[in-house]
Design goal:
Elements (H helix, E strand, L loop, with lengths): L1 E5 L8 E5 L5 E4 L7 H15 L16 H4 L2
Antiparallel strand pairs: 1-2, 2-3
Length: about 70
Amino acid sequence: MQVAAFCTPMRPDWRWRIVNYAGDMVEESRDSFTSIATALADGHRRLGELGQEDMSTRAPTYYRSTSHLRSR
């Protein structure tokens, strides 16, 4: 699982989000932090508390060639 930090224009303070490898959100912080470093540190602490193993499968990646566009 991954810990990501984000902020939005409506809430400019940093928050963390735990996401599994399939891209599903596992948990999001309710608290806000003044820096990205403190948000990530708290998110990693919480990830350790969860103690869950990520059993998800990655979302499939679809590859579509653009070679048909090059011959124009």
